[in-house]
Structures are given as C-alpha cells and as structure tokens.
Amino acid sequence: MSLRLVTEVCMIWNMSKKQARVMTAKQFAEQMKVNYRTALNWLEASLVPGAERKPSPVGEYWEIPDTALKMERPKRGPVPKGQIEAKPKRGRKAA
Known about the structure:
Multidrug-efflux Transporter Regulator, Chain: A, Domain 2, 15% strand
C-alpha cells in the first residue's frame, strides 16, 4: 500500500467514529477557494476553529469540522508581533 492510501484509510476510519462531519486540509482549501498552502498556513497558525492535527501510522493529518467553513478569513500580511503565540517545535519534547 502506498503511504498516501494508508493515511487516507486511517483518516476515514477516525472520521467515521465521530458524528460531526469533518474534512481534510485539501477539501477545506477547495471549499474556501484558497491555495492548499494557504489553508495549511491557517491551520498551523491555529486560525481555523475546531481543527485538530491527528496522528496516523505514517504521519499526521488535519481533521477540520465543516463548521470551520463559516470562519472569517484572516487578513493578509504578517501577524502583528503582540499577537504571535509561542508554539513548541514539532518533534521536540520540553525539557
């Protein structure tokens, strides 16, 4: 099985356990009519309400509730310095 297929199967299996409708980052980008990289930037900056990063045997994926489609689009440009939250680096554990 390919890496992508295994990830999709894990994602669908996890989604089927929930009652709320959820979508992938790619589906979210298509529905919001934005570039996939833009959607990932929003997700990584925690701008998408209810979105969760989930582990799978071959990596991680995003689960985004369909209610996130009602979100207000972020304004273009850099985030003002006072509004940036410090996030731990992925893959590193706190000492």
